[in-house]
Amino acid sequence: MKLNFETFDVFTTTPYTGNPVAIISVPPQLKSSLTQTQKLAIGKEFNLSEIVFLHLPTDPASTERTIDIFTSYAEVPFAGHPTVGTANYLLNFLKEDVKTIITKAGPIPIAKTPEGGVKVDVPFNFHIHSINFKSKLVPEQINPTVSIVNGMSFIFVRLPDLQALAKAAVNITKNADTYDSSPLDAGWQNGLIGTMYFVADGVDENGRKKFRTRMFASREDPGTGSASSALGCWLAVSGEGEKFVFEQGVEMGRRNEILVEVQIEGGEGKKSVKEVRLSGRAVKVMEGSLEA
């Protein structure tokens, strides 16, 4: 079967920066015949951090679109930059009246932003795990492990400055195995674990707290919306703000600007996440077709 695809660089407006994603359109008559094995093989062929299979609706007037998200190794329930990239594709490039993207993690409301990008309401099941990890960059520091949804988990390592951030190079999870989720709490041993390093970088003109970040899983990822959303949640429940700008991928020459806004409920000592919103822009780079 032949499938059409387009690629976008996400969390940027400059081609060949940001984080690339391939969006493969799947006509409704081919949905049942495209297997998980084929999807994984296509993911390996693209060799990007994630790709999206966009299932076209039987009714073109439908305001919902279903997507499957794959890394080169597995399907994941949610990932930020593929979702933001797909929302930009649907709303700003195809100009379709789509209001919801359906993922394995649940339905995600999407909308345009005045700046020309999109905002997505992130599905979340925010959880702080009992296990912590150590990093050689800050050997005395305890680094928490957090899930944004079951299956997407991240270790957060706070660093003192950009010089320390430049030395970040590894995923510090157990045996550096991204897909070994056994260290996580019972009931959460699914999906992947990555490591996000972060450095405070002041406040922008809109009062949003700025951070420089890097994220390592099986390799370094240029821009990670799921990890940024999880970090925003962790910072918010820790009392460190609710509006954030995460600048990622600078060291790779693929700068990303990732906006996260978190709404918190509850008082001191009992704060919980009420809502998570992820925003960003995207630019089209390529189009073509593939044989599945």
Fold and architecture overview:
The protein has 292 residues and is mainly beta. 15% of the residues lie in helices and 45% in strands. The protein is built from four helices and 18 strands. The protein has helices spanning 36-46, 80-93, 162-166, 225-237, and strands at 2-10, 19-26, 51-55, 64-70, 75-76, 100-103, 106-112, 118-121, 127-135, 138-149, 152-158, 192-203, 209-216, 220-221, 243-248, 256-265, 272-280, 282-291. The chain has an 18-stranded mixed beta sheet that branches. β3 (51-55) and β4 form a beta hairpin. The longest helix has 14 residues, at 80-93. It starts with a strand and ends with a strand. The relative contact order is 0.19. The mean pLDDT is 96.
